[in-house]
Amino acid sequence: MGHWWERNIVEPGKLPLLLALTAFVVTFVVTRVITRLIRAGKGPFGNVRAGGLHIHHVVPGVLLTVVGGFGAVASARHGAAAVLSAVVFGMGVGLVLDEFALILHLDDVYWSEEGRKSVEVVVLTAALVGLLLAGFVPFGVNDLSQEELADRGTVISNIALNFVFSLVSLSKGKTRVAIFGAVVPLVALVGAIRLARPGSPWARRFYGRRPRARARAVLRAYRHDRRWAGPRRVLQDWIGGKPDPRPARLPGRH
Fold first, then answer.
1. What is the C-alpha separation between 185 and 166, in angstroms, rounded?
2. What is the pLDDT of residues 180-200, one digit of tens each?
3. DSSP string, 95-138
């Protein structure tokens, strides 16, 4: 175990990244537990207010992110300062992304349906950082031999090709695939060759005069959403808490 730790974490300089990821996940989990207790009216916790103003935890999150980020740059990933900066940075990012939906909508949507975006972003971020820890690097240029690394043309070609695949996936309305594809090349390739989602820039550009392709895209998107929407919502509710029900609309009001 000690040999594995030295070879895979310490020697490659991944300890700060591991600590940042751990602090990020722990901070998010603790924050969600506290906010759910506050929501249920249990425990000693309550909303932080100053002069009648509700201070969202994204505010200290931004401060911690700034301090940890600049600390990491100044420490150059060496010594106790790098370790401390990584932990502070991870805590800050955890607080900020827990209220990502609030920043996106510029509204307090924490317990609304729109608030699910925060959980999605947190899970996606944790997964991507986990891939980086596992040895994957953006655009899939890891695991190259010394000869291939010496050939800059090969490296640049790999990066450019995978970047194109990720852009195609993004234009097809597959944001998650495009993001993961920047790290795992096969994911980007699969996203690039499959049908685009209805309403995406790719579908509007290339399916406008192809009714059969448009119909197949709609059917595939419907089947995909029907299959995964339920499990995804259950997972999001388990992680972040169930959103408040939408208020019923009164007749004649929009």
1. 9
2. 887 777 888 888 898 899 989
3. HHHHTHHHHHHTS--TTSGGGHHHHHHHHHHHHHHHHHHHT--G
